[in-house]
Amino acid sequence: MIVVVPGSFDPFHLGHLDVVTRAAQLFDEVVVAVGVNITKNYLFTPGERLELAREATAFLPNVRVLQLEGLLVDFCAAVGADTVVKGLRFGSDFDYELQMAKINDELGGIETLLLPATSPFGTLSATMIREVVLAGGDVSAFVPVEVAKAIAARKE
Ligand code: PNS
């Protein structure tokens, strides 16, 4: 079974890596879809986010990382998946994910599976990581080494 793990991944952090790794253990193939959420201001370009997610998951042989353009349901159809997997950290995620799950079901009959976050990554948020980066703080404990290097390179 092929599943899609969609997200903005700006930046790809250890909570994302946990979800992708667990999905890769549960399913035959995982396609990470690096998308654009029009409500967000990004730190990295789509190409950079794709490359960093690719580097961080390179050790997982059944994981591919592709750009998500347009609708997630169309992306799923193109890669032969009818299920998306997303991480769930706390109650506020649930309300958002429930809405997304419903609209993706309505738009394309896509099923959504929510994987509860596991410690110690359970509260990580890309939005907060971006805020720490922009304020000059160190986020290397929260991201894969490739992402930490890319963040350091931005500051030079
Ligand atoms: O990390 P995010 O911000 O929760 O990722 C959201 C993303 C990119 C997965 C989502 O915005 C998405 O699926 N975008 C593609 C457009 C789409 O199909 N939206 C669903 C209906 S609102």
Detailed description of the structure:
This protein is an alpha/beta fold. It has six helices and five strands. It has a three-stranded parallel sheet, with helices on both faces. Strands 4-5 form a two-stranded parallel sheet. Helix 3 packs across helix 4. The longest helix is centred in the middle third of the chain and has 18 residues. The N and C termini lie far apart (43 Å). The mean pLDDT is 95. The structure holds 4'-phosphopantetheine. The site of 4'-phosphopantetheine has 12 residues, from strand 1 and helix 4.
- Approximately what portion of the residues adopt beta-strand conformation? 15-25%
Number of domains: 1
- List the ions, cofactors and other small molecules found in this model: 4'-phosphopantetheine
Main sheet: strands, sense, barrel: 3 strands, parallel
